Amino acid sequence: MATTAATARRTGAWTPWLYLAPALLLLGGLLVYPVYQLGLISFLEYTQAQVSGGEPTTFQGFGNYATLFADEQFWQVLLATVLFAAACVVSTLAVGCALAVLLTRVRALPRLALMLAALGAWATPAVTGSTVWMFLFDPDFGPVNRVFGLGDFSWTYGRYSAFALVLLEVVWCSFPFVMVTVYAGIRAVPAEVVEAAALDGASQWRIWRSVLAPMLRPILLVVTVQSVIWDFKVFTQIYVMTNGGGIAGQNLVLNVYAYQKAFASSQYSLGSAIGVVMLLILLAVTLGYLRILRHRGEEL
């Protein structure tokens, strides 16, 4: 009997994996193989000459990474990417969480209107949204300059104003995910807990900081990690709104920099090396965040 029970337990342990097998195979084909190819190309000499068959492909080892890390522009672009992504993540979380709390305070009709407007922004393709924002801030015909009396001020000419413009567009198309997710989490919090805090004299900010935020920490973890991944690999908004990275590359981020290396310069191996570096950075950030939460005893 004991042997039969042990066999049943082992069989039951494999049952979930059997159900997940089709999805895992699909993910393996869509994710694992492209990542493998990306890593492989990063160790080769792979330029237009190799693509056209004019020269043989040779193994470079870590030569492409050595070339990349010796390039001063790479470190400048990396720093700009980290700072820009951090600003986008903080702004997106602040706007999304604030609007999620607002949704719990307004009536049904304004709530529905805000939800529909937010979902419309979320569903808008990045190219379309970037083009609309470019028109709104156009120095000649844009309504923003006219309303604020800025004349023919060009938002995309200066480095910081261009980054600020792209940040606004990124937040505009990203905050709905945070807002809807956090709003769903707030609605799951027992109303008695919030009411008790209010009766004790806690302000709205104190209720959020001391009551809601700790209870919503698993949800905030998800939206934070997701926002880091999205904002760190921003491409379309930068490419469209700054015309490929701004004047003299002043608004380059890693994704656009990799695109320029791979396709504009036909240095596919260097572009792949940049992609691998981005992948490793995102993995390190995500795993580090999860490890911190585990040390604090949080449930994931």
Blueprint of the fold:
Layout: H1 2-42, E1 44-45, H2 48-51, E2 58-59, H3 63-69, H4 72-103, H5 108-123, H6 126-136, H7 143-147, H8 159-188, H9 191-199, H10 204-215, H11 217-232, H12 236-241, H13 254-264, H14 268-295
Antiparallel strand pairs: 1-2
How many DSSP H or I helices? 14
The end-to-end distance, rounded to whole angstroms, is 37 Å
State the major sheet.
2 strands, antiparallel
What is the radius of gyration computed over CA atoms, rounded to a whole number of angstroms?
Answer: 24 Å
Low-confidence stretches: none
What is the average of the pLDDT values?
87
- Assembly type of the chains comes to single chain
The percent range for strand residues is under 5%
Q: Helix and strand string, N-terminal first? A: HEHEHHHHHHHHHHHH
Q: Strand order, biggest sheet? A: 1-2
SS-based class: mainly alpha
Count of distinct strands? 2
Give the fraction of residues assigned to helices.
Answer: over 70%
Rough outline:
globular
